[in-house]
C-alpha cells in the first residue's frame, strides 16, 4: 500500500458524502496510516457533523476536546481529529485563542478533555525585558507552576480531564547565558519546573494528566521551526505536533477505558531469531550477538507488560510439542510457558487461528494486539479481522521490535489497579477450573462443588477506577452501554439517592476480584437501574441471577414499589437481551427510540441460586427523593 492510499480512500468516502456514517471504516483505513496521512485525513474529518457520526455509531465514544496553550494551537486540530478517529473515537476538536491558556483554565472545564500545550514562552514572557537572569527565570517558573496548579484544580472541577504538556528548553534560551555555570543552573531550574508539572499528573490533582514533550522531541527530528515560532507563534514543528497528537489520542483512548488486554506474539523472527522447525530449539537466536540481544530486549519488554496485567499469548505456525518444549526449557528465554495464558501452535493461516486466543480465554477479539514479522500474516489479519490491532515488526531488523511494540500505546491505562496486575493469574486459574469441570458429568454438580461466593459491598475511593473501568471496557454484559469516567463514578457515590453496588466473586480456586457493578437510583417509590455491567468471564454460573435477586430484595426491603430498568441493544450485548424478562420484569410500552424498558412490581422475587453463597454488605438506603420528571 502506498503512503497516499489511506488518504485517497478517506477522500473517496468524503466525496460520497458518507464520512459520518462510515466512521468505523475510516478508523480501519487509518490504522496503518502514517502521521502525515492521518493529519490530512483529519482535516477532512474535522468538517464532519460529529454528533451525526456519533448517532450513526453510538458504540463509538464522542469526545469534545478543547485546545489551548501559550502559543497558536490550531495546527493541532486536524492532527488530533485524525488520530482520535484512528482510535475509533469521534473527536470534536476546537482551538482556543492563541496564548489564551490562562483564561481558558480559569474556570471549570466544559469539554471532556482540555489539552494545554505549553512552551518556553509561557515562562520567558514573564521575565523583565529585554534582559533577564537565571534568578528571574526561577521566580517566573515558581509563579507559573503555582498558577497552573491552582488553575488545574479549578478547571477539573467541571468533571473533564486536563492534559498539560511540559515545556522543553531550546538552545535559543539556554545559550543566551554565557556563564557556563549559570547555564547549568538554568537547566536545573528548568528541569525542576517540568518535574513539578509532571507531579501534577501523578494523582496530586484528580483528572490532571501530563505529557512529557522531552522524549517526544528526542525522537521526531527538528522539534522547532524558528520561522513558525516568530511568524505564527507556533512553538513546535509539524513533526513534533504530529507525534504529540498521536500520543494524546492514546491518552484519550486510555481515559475512555479502551486499552487492549492481550498481546498475541508470533515466535519465529519475533520473540526469537531463527526458525524452530528448521534449526530446532538449540539453533534459535536469543542469547549471543546483536540479533540475539535484540530479541532478548523484546522479551524483556513483553515480560514487563505482562507484569502489569497484560495477558501474553502465542499464535505460531509450528509444531505444538516443539513450541511447548522451547517455552518450558530453553535456557535463554526470558518469558516462559507459564507466563502465557494460552498458546496456539499449528500450521493454519494465522488469520484463522489468532481468534482462537480470544475464544480460549473468554475475551473479545477486539481486545487483542497481534505482533508478527510476516507482512502476509499481518496484512490478512488487518484485512479480515479489523477489530484486532496489528503490529508489524521486521525480521531483518529485530533491534526495532521493542520500539514498534510500544509505539501505539495499546495497553496504556489511566491507572493500573491490583485487579489488572492479577489478571493473568486469574486467566491461568481458569484453566484449572476447566480441568476441574471435566471431572463432572453434570453442570449442576460442578457448580455446586465450585463453592462460589458472591459479595455485594459498599465501594470506597479506592474502587473508583475499577468501577469506571468496568463501565468502559464491558461490552457483552452491559445493559445500557452507559460509559462512566472516574468523575462520574465519584458523583454517583456522592449522590445520596444513588446506590452503587459492585460485586466480587471467589471460588475454591481463588478470587475473581471485582467483576461487576450496578447503579441504582431512588426516585420516590421507584428504584431505577441506571446500568448493570459484569465481566463475561463469570457468565454461566447464575451470578447475574443471584445479584439481580439481591438488588430487587434490597429495593423491596426499603420501601420501593417497583424497579425499572433499560436494555439498549448493541451488536455486542445481545446475550443479555432477555435478562430482565427472565427475572420477572414485564415490558413497558416502546417509545420508538430503540431502548427496551422493563418494570418489576416486586411482588415475587426470582428464586435463590442454590449453588451460590451470597454475602450482602449493601448500605442502608438514603431517604427517597421527591419524584422528578418521568424518564419513562
Automatic annotation (TrEMBL):
Signal peptide: none annotated. Residues 454-603 form the N-acetyltransferase domain. InterPro entries: Acyl_CoA_acyltransferase (IPR016181), FkbH_domain (IPR010037), GNAT_dom (IPR000182), HAD-like_sf (IPR036412), HAD_sf (IPR023214), HAD_SF_ppase_IIIC (IPR010033), SGNH_hydro_sf (IPR036514). It comes from the Bacteria. This is HAD-IIIC family phosphatase. It comes from Streptomyces durbertensis.
Amino acid at each position: 500500500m502506498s503512503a497516499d492510499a489511506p488518504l485517497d480512500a478517506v477522500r473517496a468516502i468524503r466525496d460520497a458524502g458518507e464520512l459520518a456514517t462510515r466512521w468505523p471504516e475510516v478508523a480501519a483505513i487509518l490504522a496503518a496510516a502514517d502521521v502525515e496521512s492521518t493529519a490530512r485525513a483529519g482535516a477532512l474529518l474535522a468538517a464532519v457533523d460529529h454528533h451525526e457520526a456519533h448517532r450513526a455509531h453510538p458504540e463509538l465514544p464522542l469526545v469534545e476536546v478543547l485546545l489551548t496553550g501559550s502559543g497558536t494551537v490550531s495546527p493541532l486540530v486536524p492532527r488530533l481529529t485524525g488520530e482520535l478517529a484512528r482510535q475509533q473515537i469521534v473527536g470534536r476538536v476546537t482551538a482556543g485563542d492563541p496564548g489564551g491558556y490562562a483564561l481558558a483554565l480559569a474556570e471549570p472545564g466544559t469539554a471532556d478533555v482540555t489539552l494545554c500545550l505549553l512552551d518556553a514562552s509561557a515562562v520567558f514572557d514573564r521575565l523583565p525585558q529585554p534582559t533577564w537572569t537565571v534568578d528571574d527565570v526561577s521566580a517566573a517558573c515558581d509563579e507559573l507552576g503555582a498558577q497552573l496548579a491552582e488553575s488545574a484544580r479549578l478547571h477539573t472541577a467541571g468533571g473533564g480531564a486536563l492534559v498539560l504538556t511540559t515545556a522543553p528548553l531550546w538552545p535559543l534560551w539556554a545559550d543566551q547565558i554565557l556563564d557556563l555555570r549559570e547555564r547549568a543552573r538554568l537547566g536545573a531550574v528548568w528541569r525542576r519546573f517540568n518535574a513539578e508539572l509532571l507531579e501534577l499528573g501523578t494523582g496530586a490533582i484528580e483528572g490532571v494528566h501530563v505529557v512529557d514533550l522531552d522524549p517526544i522531541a528526542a525522537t521526531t527530528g527538528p522539534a522547532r521551526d524558528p520561522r513558525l515560532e516568530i511568524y505564527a507563534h507556533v512553538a513546535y514543528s509539524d513533526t513534533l505536533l504530529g507525534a504529540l497528537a498521536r500520543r494524546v489520542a492514546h491518552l484519550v483512548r486510555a481515559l475512555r477505558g479502551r486499552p487492549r488486554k492481550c498481546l498475541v506474539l508470533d515466535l519465529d523472527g519475533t520473540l526469537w531469531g531463527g526458525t524452530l522447525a528448521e534449526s530446532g530449539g538449540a539453533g534459535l537466536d536469543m542469547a549471543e550477538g546483536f540479533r540475539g540481544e535484540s530479541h532478548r530486549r523484546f522479551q524483556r519488554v513483553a515480560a514487563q507488560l505482562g507484569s502489569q496485567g497484560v495477558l501474553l499469548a502465542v499464535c505460531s505456525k509450528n509444531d505444538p510439542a516443539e513450541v511447548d518444549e522451547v517455552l518450558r526449557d530453553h535456557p535463554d528465554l526470558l518469558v516462559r510457558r507459564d507466563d502465557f495464558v494460552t498458546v496456539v501452535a499449528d500450521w493454519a493461516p494465522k488469520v484463522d487461528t489468532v481468534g482462537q486466543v480470544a475464544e480460549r480465554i473468554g475475551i473479545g477479539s477486539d481486545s487483542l494486539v497481534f505482533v508478527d514479522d510476516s507482512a502476509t500474516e499481518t496484512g490478512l489479519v488487518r484485512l479480515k479481522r479489523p477489530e484486532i490491532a496489528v503490529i508489524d515488526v521486521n525480521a531483518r531488523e529485530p533491534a526495532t521490535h521493542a520500539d514498534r511494540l510500544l509505539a501505539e500505546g495499546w495497553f496504556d491505562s489511566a491507572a493500573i489497579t491490583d485487579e489488572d496486575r492479577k489478571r493473568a493469574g486469574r486467566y491461568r486459574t481458569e484453566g484449572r477450573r476447566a480441568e476441574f469441570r471435566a471431572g463432572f458429568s453434570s453442570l449442576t454438580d460442578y457448580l455446586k462443588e465450585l463453592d462460589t461466593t458472591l459479595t455485594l459491598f459498599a465501594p470506597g475511593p479506592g474502587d473508583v477506577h475499577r468501577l469506571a473501568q468496568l463501565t468502559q471496557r464491558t461490552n457483552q454484559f452491559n445493559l445500557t452501554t452507559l460509559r462512566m469516567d472516574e468523575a462520574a463514578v465519584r458523583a454517583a457515590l456522592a449522590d445520596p439517592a444513588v446506590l452503587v453496588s459492585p460485586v466480587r466473586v471467589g471460588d475454591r480456586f481463588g478470587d475473581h476480584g471485582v467483576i461487576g457493578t450496578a447503579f441504582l437510583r431512588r426516585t420516590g417509590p421507584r428504584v431505577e437501574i441506571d446500568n448493570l455491567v459484569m465481566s463475561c468471564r463469570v457468565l454461566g454460573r447464575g451470578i447475574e441471577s443471584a445479584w439481580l435477586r439481591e438488588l430487587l430484595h434490597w429495593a423491596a426491603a426499603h420501601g420501593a414499589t417497583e424497579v425499572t430498568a433499560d436494555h439498549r441493544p448493541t451488536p455486542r450485548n445481545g446475550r443479555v437481551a432477555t435478562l430482565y424478562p427472565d427475572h420477572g420484569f414485564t415490558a413497558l410500552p416502546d417509545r420508538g427510540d430503540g431502548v427496551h424498558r422493563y418494570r418489576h412490581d416486586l411482588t415475587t422475587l426470582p428464586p435463590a441460586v442454590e449453588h451460590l453463597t451470597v454475602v450482602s454488605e449493601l448500605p442502608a438506603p438514603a431517604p427517597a427523593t421527591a419524584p422528578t420528571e418521568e424518564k419513562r
